[in-house]
Amino acid sequence: MKASLLRWAAWAPGIELPDAWRSWAAAPAPLPATGAPDAKFLPAMLRRRCTPLTRTMLSAAFGCAEPDELARLRTVFASRHGSINESIGLLLNVVRREKLSPATFSHTVHNAQAGLFSIAAGNRAASSSLAGQEDTWTAAFLEALVFLERDPREPVLVVVGDVPLADTFAPLVDEAAVPYAFAAQVGAAGTGPGVSLELGAADPARARAPWPPALEFLRWWLSDEESLEQPNRASTARWLRA
Amino acid sequence: MSRAPCRLAALGQVSALGRVRAEVHARLAAGDATHLSLDAEIVPERSLWLGRVNEALPAIPAPLARFACRNNRLALAALESIGAEVAAAVARFGPARVGVVLGTSTSGVGDAEAAIAHRERTGVLAHEFFYDQLEFGGLARFVAEAIGARGPAYTLSTACSSGARALASARSLVAMGACDAVVSGAADSLCGLTTNGFAGLGALSAGVTNPCSANRDGLTLGEAAALFLVTGEPGGIQLLGVGDSSEAHHMSAPDPEGRGAETAMRDALADAGLAPDDVAYLNLHGTGTPQNDVMEAAAVGRVLGSDVPTSSTKPLVGHTLGAAGALEAAFCWLVLAERRGGELVLPPHVWDGARDPALAPIRLVEKGESARSGGRAVVMTNSFGFGGNNCTLVLGASDSP
């Protein structure tokens, strides 16, 4: 499956601009475990309603497109955990039989980041939000290809991100728990630097990178390595420059 | 150029109307709203009508115990009905060529409530609690493992349009050659979080939801699963068109003019290469909230006019949230699958009959009403979600292959 990677942006604490990411990719090191962006580009009213995850994902999204593109491109928002940290508070309300805050409830849907992006960017285009466990980055890329299959004329803005799980659930999940977001404009094959994805047999012995899969992809993209193999739950994602 | 075929080759579903196909179709055609149940527990100091699935659900197989939750049991109940067709697809195409794309707005959060309550009492989560039970991505992974598929498996969650969107993505995964078959649809389960959340928003009906009525006062919630086997074969019942849009308006209220809904419907028709006149029936999103119904009727009036028969099936099963788009596509699938001699028996619009002069005059299906279709029958279903996410599907069947 071939596509083009036209533009990218990423955010992690202290690594915000493309040059900082190039430096990180040249000498990758584990990422900071805490921090959230200011997201000053958002109007104050809207910013107040944004969780740390929303500010993180929208920072990458807004860094990855011109204003007219922000209002026009179709989007895929992908997050393994989404708004689960905020949902924990609501779950405590439920078990204590307290009233739930309507604003909190409507901002903890899994597509909250997509919805707030649509409002902030004035974007009325098609949008998808997904979760795919350890395979979330692979799934996000596939979902971008879904939109390109439907209409290849415009690229798709893909945004993947997470923040560390709260203590309630964190012990249940073995992962590189860091706040981050990665955004990419994925276009049809032949419209820019080419990238291909093939899914092969799972290889349980293959080690995971000590940072999220989307950032391992970025590290590879900025390197001179020809291919990257990433372990998924039931497959191996093999990325190639096409 | 028309799109590649997308066959909705087999359907398994479960809702308050049941899971046996002939029974569900009969109840749908009769507008049988007697399967809702009254609940006095789930929201404090309030009684609610709910579209709960009251029948026994299959147990999660022991090797998949880390996925045990009501949401996955609903999915498994739907999956059992198409077990033979799905197993044949996995055998024919190979596990790596079969994908799973499902929608949900709840995943296993209902069971997480019990784990959180345990943690409140004891300081630790119940020891049998796994993150696979709770996380959104767990639904697709569970179904993939249950059927032995190793292709792409992910979960879409765009609130109430999740199930419709999953079918749209399944179609493209097959069309682009990423998969030869996809198990697609949705599952959503009643839980304290959604019932109390919608109660907090003031969005729940005091009685049973009454869509398009002057007296409508909100939602009735429900739960369901609807799973399709999606292939690239011609014939049978086809997913002909998809249209989708965002609202850029508000997190929990639609654009009052229904512009996003209108875009989704127009684009779905264009994608299918069909005209408004071709549509024999529209399953409305029809939630029974003041805001949804007025904007949806306006959008339907602008796209389809006032002659196309429409109904909301939410008075029969409740609003099944993340599953609604797939369940209502399933109801459309049943309308097409049960057509006889070019006649479609349509699900009636069950309400108090009090016309709201503020609503555009769309045509609501009466009890016992059917539609004639020529050689080709085309139906449409709308799904509009929180966060301003809209998705419309067009399904069709031809009498001659």
Question: In words, what does this structure look like?
Answer:
The complex is a heterodimer of chains A (242) and B (401). Chain A has a single domain, classed as Thiolase/Chalcone synthase (Peroxisomal Thiolase, Chain A, domain 1, 3-Layer(aba) Sandwich). Chain A is built from nine helices and eight strands. Chain A has helices spanning 18-26, 44-48, 52-62, 67-70, 84-95, 102-106, 112-121, 136-150, 213-221; strands at residues 2-11, 74-78, 127-131, 156-162, 180-188, 194-200, 227-231, 236-241. In chain A, α3 crosses α7 (112-121). Chain B is globular and about 60 Å long. Chain B is an alpha/beta fold. In chain B, 33% of the residues lie in helices and 22% in strands. At the A-B interface, α5, α6, α7, β3 and α8 of A face α4, α5, α6, β5 and α7 of B.
Looking at the overall shape, the CATH architecture of chain A is: 3-Layer(aba) Sandwich
Radius of gyration of chain B (CA) equals 20 Å
Question: Secondary-structure element order of chain B, as H and E?
Answer: EHEEHHEHHHEHEHEEEHEHEHHEEEEE
What spatial form of chain A do the alpha-carbon principal axes imply?
globular
CATH fold name of chain A, please?
A: Peroxisomal Thiolase, Chain A, domain 1
Q: How large is the radius of gyration of chain A? A: 18 Å
- Helical proportion of chain A, percent range: 25-40%
* Anisotropy-based shape of chain B: globular
The largest sheet of chain B has its strands arranged as 9-16-15-10-11-13
Name the CATH homologous superfamily of chain A: Thiolase/Chalcone synthase
Overall number of strands of chain A:
8
Strand content of chain A: 15-25%
**Would you list the SSEs of chain A in sequence order as H and E?**
EHHHHEHHHEHEEEHEE
First CA to last CA of chain A: what distance? 10 Å
